[in-house]
Fold:
Amino acid sequence: MTRLSQLIGQPTISLADAEQSGRVEGVEIERGRVTGLRTSDGLVETSAIRTFEGDAVTYDGSPTAIDTKADSPLGRRVLSEDGDELGRLADLDIADDGTVTSMMLEDGRGIEGSALHVIGSYAVIVAALPDTTVTGSELPPPPAGATPA
Amino acid sequence: MTALLRGNDVSGFPVVDVSTGDDIAEVRDLIFDPSQGVVSGFTLGKRGLFGGRRREVLPIEAVRSVGTHAVMVDSVDAISDPADAPQEVTSGVERSADVTDDMVVTESGRQLGHVRDVVLSGGGTPRVVGFQIGGGPAGDGFVPIDTHTAVSASALIVPDGFENRVRTDLTGLAGDLAELDRGGSR
Structure:
């Protein structure tokens, strides 16, 4: 098990030439699984990564080009697929096979990893309430001017 | 979670592609069809500080959900060129079917004030459920849409007795709507 915050910034080393060439900048997520790491060299797919649990990320093959530059997903807005704001992303727990086991919000609440759909340039999208179980404390009050019907 | 939202709250909401998590546009205005009492879509603006108007529209059928923070769509294809959009969407834009500043009168002709905004219920099937009114003898507040409510580009007609149904906040309106639902009058 590793945390996204520990993964970001780790050196990435190609097993082909043992050269440290880049660093982890972010993750690609699809339906609760890490499908790849965004690195300063490009995208490294999860299938090419030996382990998430070392002090460096070692991988086979070579990264593929990423067309868009993205900032770290930590601190990004978390939205339900219904468009409700749940908070900001604090961290992800990632199992060695790439499964996201849980996500943490900045206010200390947790959401099960399987609810995580995608991390986009604008928002982290999770399954809609009440499918999503948010643990840790009460749900936030709705924003001013909005009232649950 | 379904929320009550004012039209003004929704203006400026990002339009987010649920499949990528990217913001692809920004809501500029609701397209309200007074003849049907429904929101037929949204006009759009570009995202960012210097974003201008976009000529594309977002038909309501292409909206996945309206939440408390964003309008969600399934893909970037939800945004249509006006030429391809349903006719009621484009005609709504052309008619500039603006009901704000409409006079609010009861069926027997008592003037209560003016329409300030529409209130819509968010979620997967967003619809107009009431109006924010103000500037008249009934005070500032919210009235629900009733089966007898009629609205045009010039006036909002509400049933007699609605002068006593003006709620000061959206929580009050939500309670009223729940009561109307239970009474089966809607």
